[in-house]
Structure formats: structure tokens, C-alpha cells
Amino acid sequence: MTASRVLVLNSGSSSVKYQLLDMADRSRLAAGLVERIGEDTSRLVHERLAGAGAAGAAGDRRERSGAIADHAAALKAVAAELAADGMGLDSPELAAVGHRVVHGGTRFTRPTVIDDEVLAEIRNLIPLAPLHNPANVTGIEVARSLRPDVPQVAVFDTAFHSTMPEYAARYAIDAATAEKYSVRRYGFHGTSHAYVSRATAALLGKRPEEVNVIVLHLGNGASASAVRGGVCVETSMGLTPLEGLVMGTRSGDLDPAVVFHLARVGGLSVDEIDSLLNKKSGLLGMCGDNDMREVLRRAGEGDEAATLAFAAYVHRLKKYIGAYSAVLGRVDAVAFTAGVGENAHQVREAVVDGLAELGLALDLEANAARSPQPRLVSAEYARVAVAVVPTDEELEIASQAYALVTG
Question: Of the N and C termini of the chain, which has fewer Cβ atoms inside 10 Å?
Fold first, then answer.
């Protein structure tokens, strides 16, 4: 029996998301979520999606609540749920465990099999991703203890963007200071941008090497990338996920001196400014809602704050499309993905409106139609395709992990 299954783990500070995939046919066998880890109200949701095993049937969904003390207990609970479906971690069919790791710095630019040295390096990168890498490390440690004989593979959010030319990755600050403190642009959402850029090329009937794509990953966190021939040459997020687009709770681009002003004039501490810009800004800061559905509802009813927030969100996106069109020189497609990009047709319509000179135009009927499938929503006469491509970061992580361990 050839091992072909990959368990994908996304360990957050108080949650674990997981999927078990069979890479023989790229099918999903099971998926679930453990949330509120460390609380008395912890919750585990597990769904069997397909595949082999003596127990259960596709579509079975189980949910339980109660205290789950830590990530070790959470992953053991996940293992028990998989075992109940006949797909436990002790299965000889498990080829690898793929871990989403947010920050790989400049060292990790491709998927990497995790050993003690690699794990130590991921720990060393915690100052660059203090909210994410510690939880990623914990997930890796627990998974290694549960199945030490199976390769554990780290797939880094930053890796896809490591191909940016140095002039795009560097900030124009003192070079010695930048080197000492690892200050440069890294970018995030890399697994999504990699998957969507390739899927967009396939939608156009071309190879990734033949296509230039602007990818707009629009969720509560949002980022843009310019992908030339399958290679990222520019992205909107920087040292941290704060830079770039207007997001659900993040400000995106702003004058760095805003920080000094808030400290000197407002008396805010560094931590208070950090919280303000990351958790209390963006759509939430401008109108009190970070859910685009609610922002659109309020704007449709004439709410001035929501209308302004939506306009700022769209304006920033237009600026990046224009900038990345200049960077790429030739654009074959603009691809919308993630929760807002895939589902909010009003956002796509507002962003494309007025960009006819860049070759963009929508088929309004196609754009308004809902579908879970990758699709083109551009007008037939448009020079640049507009695509809606559901992202699949779990499949991307599983694919990269499986390719690495099978050669």
C-alpha cells in the first residue's frame, strides 16, 4: 500500500483547523476545527467528507463542547475523531503532516521537512510573527510527538513571495539597521496566492509560465500580489500583515509618522498603537463593522460611515491594480479570491468600474451569479480577464508537502 494521505494542520493561538486529504485523487477525507482551546467552552467540530474506513459515512458531522486544555489535548482529540472514522494517525496510509507556518523569514523559501534544527529556526522567527509562529511551533511539537515516524513538513506563508526582486523587497532605510533587525518586505497569504495564480492560468487554458496575474486575496485580512509567469514579483503586505490594503480590522498603508504622532501627541504606548492599527482599524475602525456583508447592507441603506469605509476599501484596491499593472507591464487576468473576493459581487463591480483603460470590464450578469466553481466574469470584449477563483490553501499545503516527501 502506497501512503498517499496528508494531514494539514493550521494551528492558531487558540484554535486548530485541520483537513485530511488523499493525494492519490486529491480528495478530502475529513475536516474540522477545534476552537477556544484553553477555555471551559472549547468546541470541536469534525466532518467526514469521503474516503475509506470501517466506520461512518461521508457527510457525517460530529460536534462536542467542553474544556480542551491545550494544543496537545486538541490534537489528541482530532486524532480520536479521525480514528473513529477509520482514518487515525496510526494509519500506514499517512504520508506526511503538513503544517501552515506563517513566517519563514529569508531562510525558508520552500516547503521544508521539519527536524530539530528547522524547528529551532522557526522559533527564532517568533519576533517577526509573535501572534502566529508560537502556535505553529506548538502544533508541530505535538504532531511530532504523536507520529514521530511520519515526515512533518512546514509550508510557509511567506515563501511564495521570496521571489520578489531585492528592490521590491527592501525598505529604503539604513541598510545596516535593516540587516540587523531583519526589516524587509516578506508578504503573506503565499499559499493562497500560489494556488490562485496557477488556477487562474488553468482557467485561461494556459500554463502558469505564460500568464501575468494580479491576485486579490480579500478576506478579513487582505493582500494583493503581482505574479509574472508563475513567479511573485510584488505583494502588498510587508514586514508584517499590516501593510497594504484596507482590511477588516487592519489599516493597511499609512504614513509611518502617524505612529510618532499618536505617541507624542496622543500619549499612546507602542502596544496601544499596535492594537489600534491591527485590531481596531480598517473597516471596523471607519464604520464599526468588519464584516463586508454588514458594511454593504448599511451602505445600501445610506449609512454615511459604511459608505465611506466601502469607498476607501475600493479606492485602495484600484490603486494597487493600477500599480501592479505598471509593474507587470502586461496583465492577462485579475483574480478575486477568499471570502470577500469570492462572494461579494458588489466589491468586484466597484473595483473594476472605471478601469476600462486598463482593459478591465465585467459581464454584470456573470459577476452577480453565485457559484463555487472557478469562473470568468469579465465581458467578452475585455482585454484583461477577470476571474473568481475559490482559494484552497489546504490543498496547496498538502500538495507541496506530498511532493516534497515523495520526491
Answer: C
| CB distance 34 to 16 below 8 Å | yes
Please answer whether residues 71 and 364 qualify as being in contact, where contact means their C-beta atoms are separated by less than 8 angstroms.
Answer: no
Give the tens place of pLDDT for each residue, 369-397.
999 999 999 999 999 999 999 999 999 99
Q: Angle, to 10 degrees, between the axis of helix 257-264 and the axis of helix 270-279?
A: 130
* Three-class HEC string of 203-218: HCCCCHHHCEEEEEEE
Residue matched to cell numbers 487582505: 222
| Residue among 223, 224, 221 nearest 249 (CA) | 221
**DSSP state letter for 158:** T
CB 118 within 8 A of CB 110: no
Residues classed as catalytic? 157
pLDDT score for 391: 94
Tens of pLDDT, residues 147-184: 899 999 999 999 999 999 999 999 999 999 999 999 99
User: Backbone phi, then psi, for 352, in 5-degree steps?
Assistant: -75, -25
User: Distance (Å, rounded) from C-alpha 42 to C-alpha 37?
Assistant: 6
DSSP string of 338-392, one letter each residue: HHHHHH-HHHHHHHHTT-GGGT--B-HHHHHS--SS-EE-B-TT-SSEEEE----
Cα dist from 280 to 214, 239, 274, 314, whole Å: 28, 19, 9, 19
List strand residue ranges (DSSP E) for 75-174, in order.
Answer: 94-101, 112-113, 152-156
Measured distance CA(351)–CA(345) in Å, rounded: 10
